[in-house]
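pinned: reference chain
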Amino acid sequence: MTYGGFMNIFTNDESSTGDRMDSYKVAASISKGRMARENPLSAAALEAVEASDIVVVRDIYDHVEQVLEALDVPFQAVAIEQFEQVALQPEQLLIINCPGCISSRDVEKVRSFVESGGTLFTTDWALRNVIEPAFPGVLEYNEHATADDVVRIEIVDSNSPYLAGVLETGDDPQWWLEGSSYPIRILDSEKVKVLIKSKELGNKYGEDPVAVVFPQGKGEVFHMISHYYLQRTEFRSDRHHMEASVLAAEKNISLDDETTAFMAGLKLGDVESAESSTRFIANIVADKKRKQSQS
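pinned: its structure tokens
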């Protein structure tokens, strides 16, 4: 998900942070190469991002900033206890990591930021701590926390610019659910668009949305179940056990020597879901930058 999101990483929980980052570095190279080929304008927008464009609120359970680092996307980071001192601008993308326990005053600041045109990206427990109080009547936690689990995911809106290149025919990324992740119940079905869902998630925990987006005032809000920076994965097919180099060949992407070195020892399943997650956040960042440039 790491994100309660696309299962990216390893066959056991003891793999090192260095190995996880190697998966993301390889995945980021593949994502950026594909974006440059498939959508040059978005690729150019991603390259034009400046640190002032993205504010990441660091927290203890999720680390979306590490995906941005793998993509070489600059950002400014603040600790959760420093967030009240940050002056937000509507042209920015604000990322609040799980759990996102911000003050009531900061909830109001987030609401005002989005209403004026800002883009908000949150994960997992921030559903209760940020989304519910800031935007009541849109989404809520269904009070049925998940186990530590892995589920298959599927794209809902294949025409969404946010999902361009995220999943292709034959891809099979897994979504890791952190223990006690918060399933997303949609209260306003006319407002909320489901981008990614999981039938397994719905069957087990009552709600199938994995990633959603909704407009709010002049801005928009993205929310995803579990953590964006993943800790482990499950290999469910022989394909997942193939060498990671097979994935680069499938995507017709040539990697430089440094990235190829990172790939040594990684399996296709390690990188496939990481590639999906890096492309998803890259699409969101590039879209925000393009809108900023057009305003």
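why pinned: The chain has a mean pLDDT of 86. The first strand starts at residue 6 and ends at 7.
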